[in-house]
Amino acid sequence: MQKIDLFTARTDGYWNYRVPGILCTTRGVVLATVEARRGTGGDWDGNDILLRRSLDGGITWQPPRQVVSHAQYGPGPVNNFVLIADADGTVHALYCHSYARVFYLRSHDDGTTFSAPVEITESLAGFRNEYPWRVIATGPGHGIQLRNGRLLVPVWLSDGSGTEFGAGKLGHRPSEVATIFSDDGGASWQRGAIFAHSDGRILNPSEALAVELDDGRVLCNIRSESPQHRRLVAVSPDGAQGWNEPAFDDALLEPVCMGSLLRLHDPNPAGRGVYLFANPDNLEKELTPPKWAVAYDRKRLTVKMSNDDCATWHFSRVLEEGPAGYSDLAEAPDGAILCIYERGMLSRMTDSAAVVVARLDRAWLAAGAL
Questions:
Q1: Which of 18, 98, 135, 148 could be disulfide-bonded to 158 (CB atoms 3.0-4.6 Å)?
Q2: How far apart are CA 134 and CA 132, in angstroms?
Q3: DSSP codes, 181-238
């Protein structure tokens, strides 16, 4: 295994780096992104988006560069940058400004340059017919392209009534989860159904990632603050409509943190898809402040593997024993698994010391048979 620090807190004018994403393009270039946070590293500080590229499968990396600056948009952060690899070689990207506006851009040269951003918020305004949202966020992590060409990204919505950020800032709770999609290569975007609600049984579902299953259905794995402290799972025939009732996966602990999900390119010997899931696999409370009443420590980052459409997880390895938070997964051209994640803790649980990329192989993970 190899671990590389890509972004280190308190460097280059930023307080810290959070909410990482990683993607391998169809031409084999690996892109790693972060929110570069100013102030004290909060969600509402003047955050920018930085990107690093690797041309050798995540072994070495080009210097970071700014892809989106919050200064282009006025007060508030740019946040939740989501990349999608298109089979035609295009790299699509979505992101938000101040958790209220959504923008789209694309790259035709593996992330070397990007197009001018186009705002797509108006095409998502119809969500208000179902839910009075004032806060919207894409992903985070990567989006996916289905076999039929559809581009798909989970989103979460809030009416902003929560008071957790103080006066003058919209809250992220209560929250609901949906997807947005494009069937014309990113030229236009549509909204899917809202399928995970704060309804008493489920509490504040939010950050989600999606995979396409063997039979073409789409599965979303969802963070929530529900008292069961297990990940939520919902399935749809097309990733947009017809979602089943979200269910808790007893095998996947939920400390209240974003988790990552990936389908590998090559099937297992039986011809079934191979899926990976990563999150802090922990329900201990030693580092988390009392005011985070529903949350547990973000530590013990663990990668799990499934060979049956995410129904069971028969392989599990701890990637980082200590503090570790948000993560994302990608597959390098040589089949290596790449996991980018927040590592370490400085002033508080969400003040990560670094964003790290771990490069590992399927054999290492398969050694963790349960």
A1: 135
A2: 7
A3: EESSTTSS-EE----B--SSSS-----EEEEE-TTS-EEEEE----TT-EEEEEEESS
Instruction: Choose among 143, 327, 42, 17: nearest CA to 6.
Output: 17
In the sheet where 16-24 sits, what is the strand order?
A: 16-24, 30-37, 48-54, 65-68
The HSE-up count of residue 317 (CA atoms within 13 Å, CB side) is 17
Whole-angstrom distance, CA of residue 265 vs CA of residue 26: 11
C-alpha of 2 from chain center: 22
CA 99, CA 103: separation in Å to the nearest integer? 11
Which DSSP state fits 90?
A: -
Q: What is the DSSP string of 310-342?
A: TS---EEEEEEEEEEEEEEEEE-TTS-EEEEEE
The per-residue pLDDT string of the chain (370 residues; one tens digit each, 9 = 90 and over) reads 899 999 999 999 999 999 999 999 999 999 999 999 999 999 999 999 999 999 999 999 999 999 999 999 988 999 999 999 999 999 999 999 999 999 999 999 999 999 999 999 999 999 999 999 999 999 999 999 999 999 999 999 999 999 888 888 899 999 999 999 999 999 999 999 999 999 999 999 999 999 999 999 999 999 999 999 999 999 999 999 999 999 999 999 999 999 999 999 999 999 999 999 999 999 999 999 888 889 999 999 999 999 999 999 999 999 999 999 999 999 999 999 999 999 999 999 999 999 999 999 989 999 988 7
Max Cα separation, the chain? 56
User: What distance in Å separates the CA atoms of residue 108 and residue 247, rounded to the nearest whole number?
Assistant: 39
Tell me the pTM. Answer: 0.97
